[in-house]
């Protein structure tokens, strides 16, 4: 029991430390992300998406580390030069990849692969594990297998193929943080008012009227489909409650409460008028 307690404490400490390391590196990552996106047509240029955009520096010595690079069409291990003048994640973004850990990443996924996952996730039901297995099986056709030790015992020489779910999940989180910061920057530059922010989300409902509407075409289409998760528990998938962060895709509980209070205030005058008429 005591060993289990210390093991849990060690795991919690590592988790909190890793979150802090991610927070520290997000700023430099976003700067490099924006710069490289402009040079590569948002990583859509087939000739430039994986060009190494690292500027010349005078760091001596540089150090090489092996990193497994996973892309839509390739899976390989390369020795990459890292130096002290920039974080490891910035170095990988300059090559078109995002690593699975904030420091000393051993695995990195191409940004265009992360883009594909994000688009699939938006338009259809796709979980991390099936997606990682599907990509791995697709890449098995003409790429070397990446093997890792199977057992924890140093004398155990058995190996197994690497599973990517946890690594891919962390890279996806980092990629979504880049998209979130990009969206916030656009809103800041454009100085959108509350109605403008709503129009950015749904131009049809809140944006300016567009000419050319056909006669009989509905103004709105309201779909009452309950085939999705209506609520996300506050501590869902969170092991340490001290660092709870609600994803930007979900509405904050505070905002729900404020809307309920606002609707209640709007209904009060109506109820008062009905009472006076009766």
Biggest sheet, open or closed, and with what strands and sense?
4 strands, mixed
Q: Total helix count? A: 8
Rg on CA atoms, Å: 24 Å
Poorly predicted regions:
none
Task: Count the beta strands.
Answer: 6
Question: Briefly, what is this?
Answer:
The chain has helices at residues 2-39, 88-93, 111-123, 128-139, 165-190, 194-201, 203-206, 253-277; strands at residues 63-70, 75-82, 97-99, 107-110, 147-149, 159-161.
Q: Could you explain the architecture of this structure?
A:
- This protein is 47% helix and 10% strand.
- The protein has helices spanning 2-39, 88-93, 111-123, 128-139, 165-190, 194-201, 203-206, 253-277, and strands at 63-70, 75-82, 97-99, 107-110, 147-149, 159-161.
- Helix 3 (111-123) packs across helix 5 and helix 4 (128-139) crosses helix 5 (165-190).
- It is built from eight helices and six strands, in the order H-E-E-H-E-E-H-H-E-E-H-H-H-H.
- The chain is an alpha+beta fold.
- The protein has a domain at 18-186.
- The protein is globular.
- The mean pLDDT is 82.
- Strand 3 (97-99) and strand 4 form a beta hairpin.
- The strands form two sheets. Strands 2-1-4-3 form a four-stranded mixed sheet. Strands 5-6 form a two-stranded antiparallel ribbon.
- The termini are far apart.
């Amino acid at each position: 029991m005591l060993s289990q307690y210390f093991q849990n404490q060690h795991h919690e400490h590592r988790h909190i430390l890793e979150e802090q390391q991610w927070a520290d590196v997000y700023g430099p990552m976003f700067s490099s992300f924006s710069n490289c996106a402009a040079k590569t047509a948002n990583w859509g240029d087939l000739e430039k998406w994986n060009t190494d955009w690292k500027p010349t520096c005078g760091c001596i010595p540089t150090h090489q580390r092996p990193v497994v690079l996973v892309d839509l069409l390739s899976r390989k291990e390369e020795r990459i030069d890292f130096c002290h003048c920039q974080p490891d994640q910035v170095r990988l973004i300059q090559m078109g990849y995002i690593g699975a850990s904030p420091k000393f990443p051993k695995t990195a996924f191409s940004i265009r692969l992360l883009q594909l996952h994000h688009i699939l996730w938006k338009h259809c039901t796709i979980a991390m594990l099936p997606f990682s297995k599907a990509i791995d099986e697709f890449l098995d056709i003409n790429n070397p297998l990446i093997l890792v030790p199977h057992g924890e015992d140093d004398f155990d020489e058995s190996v197994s193929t690497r599973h990517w779910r946890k690594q891919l999940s962390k890279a996806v989180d980092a990629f979504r943080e880049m998209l979130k910061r990009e969206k916030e920057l656009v809103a800041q530059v454009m100085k959108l008012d509350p109605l403008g922010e709503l129009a950015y989300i749904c131009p049809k409902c809140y944006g300016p009227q567009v000419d050319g509407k056909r006669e009989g075409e509905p103004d709105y289409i309201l779909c009452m489909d309950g085939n999705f998760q209506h609520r996300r528990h506050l501590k869902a998938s969170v092991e340490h409650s001290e660092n709870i962060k609600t994803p930007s895709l979900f509405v904050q509980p505070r905002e729900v409460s404020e809307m309920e209070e606002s609707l209640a205030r709007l209904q009060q005058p109506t109820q008062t008028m009905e009472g006076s008429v009766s």
